[in-house]
Design brief:
Number of strands: 15
Family: Belongs to the protein kinase superfamily.
Organism: Senna tora
Pfam families: Pkinase
Protein name: non-specific serine/threonine protein kinase
CATH topology of the largest domain: Transferase(Phosphotransferase), domain 1
Catalytic activity: L-seryl-[protein] + ATP = O-phospho-L-seryl-[protein] + ADP + H(+); L-threonyl-[protein] + ATP = O-phospho-L-threonyl-[protein] + ADP + H(+)
CATH superfamily of the largest domain: Transferase(Phosphotransferase) domain 1
Number of domains: 2
Largest sheet: 6 strands, antiparallel
CATH class of the largest domain: Mainly Alpha
Strand order of the largest sheet: 3-7-8-6-5-4
Shape: globular
Distance between the termini: 65 Å
Bound molecules: adenosine-5'-triphosphate
Length: 455
């Protein structure tokens, strides 16, 4: 459950460009010039390893961490009349007990979908089999029937938004039914609900949860989406869903997520910034295909055709995944998702959560710890200890950390876009497969040789 806590950060033009440390330790004192220069000096004596050289050059970006962010020519989304938020709609952000940063949004719900309180969209015209099945005209009765009056037996999850149930519709389609909490204190849920249904109704992609419809009636707000049966990525990294994920599967998942975000950023009419990319929002199918879920914080991206470079908005997202430049300037772009994706890459490689309070201070912020290790030439110690140090794993580890370092660049201009991330990951996977195959060949020829010696 979300509840207001200590984090409060009202928009204030005066403070936006100061070099104050953020609460995750990415400050000029803790992670910028002196520390990185020292690391770079060490590395400059370490020979001509191309990976290390790339790491060094990207590491230099950390030196410029928290310099004033934008040239004055940049144009904000709120500068545009069309998207101006209603006056007085900006309020302080708050942090939840789960460290999820939420706030009453100014913009996510600015375009209510047309129609009544019974939501049927183009995406809801399809059944689970992908057939054109006609609109799923949900009534409260349908929902009660499908969930057996919201029986706890069918409950599969609980999030900040509410409770999630697995249910079967009358046509046999298995769906997830998300029922919003009714708490009077949770006004932001209305905004999250609007944001989620608006976004879901505009998208369709193999790596995004499919939308079937919604219902908004009196104090009930319900979203019906594809049921994804194999839990969240975080549950798999925690090994509470069976076996440990091997690196090949982790690379596949990273690529699926990269495809989903690329689609949101580049391949729809009005691109979308997800704003909450994290391992607990990545759902897995039985075949370990990844589907990005939870569009409660999604926001329309700035319209680059009209020269708008960013959206000025309150900070939303989840601690540990938040782009420090967005935190500091309130300027949102697609590159904030790229930053979160960088954190996700480190999570996939290390198995650790983005914030690990139980570790000593210097290991507590996983991305920061991992990047430091990588820059120091000690990538090996970042690999999830439950994975083997094969040649293929070690190479993929180095290359993935190198990409993560680029995604985590303090300044958004230095981060690659998501399409580039996907391309780099394809090439990492290709090399990984080739090396795994040759690892396997040499292993089997060794065992063949030792069997012949015995004969
Ligand atoms: N489509 C789905 N298929 C199967 N399980 C789901 C689905 N959507 C959500 N769940 C389960 O319900 C849980 C809560 O999901 P939900 O999207 O409501 O989270 P949330 O409210 O956004 O949480 P948070 O605020 O922590 O991000 C998930 O962790 C997952 O276990």
């Amino acid at each position: 459950m979300k509840s207001p806590s200590t984090y409060s950060r009202p928009r204030s033009s005066g403070s936006a460009h100061q070099t104050t440390p953020d609460r995750f330790g990415y400050s000029s004192s803790s992670y910028a010039s002196s520390e990185v220069s020292a690391i770079q000096n060490q590395k400059s004596n370490s020979g001509g390893n191309p990976v290390a050289a790339a790491a060094r050059s990207v590491a230099a970006l950390f030196v410029s961490c928290f310099t004033p962010p934008e040239a004055s020519s940049s144009k904000s989304f709120v500068d545009s009349q069309e998207f101006k938020a209603p006056s007085g709609s900006f309020v302080s952000s708050v942090c939840t007990v789960e460290y999820r940063v939420v706030s009453d949004a100014s913009g996510a719900g600015s375009h209510r979908p047309r129609g009544s309180n019974r939501g049927i969209t183009s995406s809801s015209y399809r059944s689970a089999q992908g057939k054109e099945a006609g609109p799923l005209n949900f009534t409260m009765e349908d929902i009660f029937q499908a969930t057996r009056n919201f029986s706890p037996t069918f409950k599969v999850g609980q999030g900040g938004f509410g409770t999630v149930y697995k249910a079967k519709l009358q046509d046999g389609t298995v769906v997830a039914i998300k029922r919003a909490k009714k708490s009077l204190y949770e006004k932001h849920l209305g905004v999250e609900f609007q944001s989620e249904i608006q976004t879901l109704s505009r998208v369709e992609h193999l790596n995004l949860v499919k939308f079937y419809g919604y219902l908004e009636q009196e104090d009930e707000r319900i979203i019906v989406v594809e049921y994804v049966p194999n839990g969240t990525l975080r549950e798999h990294l925690d090994c509470i869903r069976g076996n440990i994920l091997d690196l090949a599967t982790r690379l596949d998942i990273a690529i699926d997520v990269a495809h989903a975000i690329t689609y949101l950023h580049m391949y729809i009419d009005h691109p979308i910034i997800h704003r909450d990319i994290k391992s607990s929002n990545i759902l897995l199918t039985e075949n370990f295909r990844a589907k990005v879920a939870d569009f409660g914080f999604a926001r329309q991206a700035p319209d680059s055709d009209s020269g708008v470079t960013h959206v000025s908005t309150q900070v939303k997202g989840t601690a540990g995944y938040l782009d420090p430049e967005y935190l500091k300037t309130y300027q949102l772009t697609e590159k904030s998702d790229v930053y979160s994706f960088g954190v996700l890459l480190v999570e996939l490689i290390s198995g650790r959560r983005p914030i690990e309070p139980k570790f000593e201070l210097r290991e507590r912020i996983t991305a920061k710890w991992a990047m430091k290790k990588f820059i120091e030439g000690d990538a090996i110690s970042v690999l999830d200890p439950r994975l083997d140090h094969t040649a293929a794993n070690n190479l993929a580890l180095e290359k993935t950390l190198e990409l993560a370092l680029q995604c985590l660049a303090p300044r958004r201009q230095s981060r690659p876009n998501m399409k580039k991330c996907a391309e780099i990951l394809w090439s990492i996977r290709k090399d990984y497969r080739e090396l795994s195959a040759s690892d396997f060949r040499s292993l089997s020829s060794t065992s063949h040789r030792s069997a012949s010696i015995k004969d």
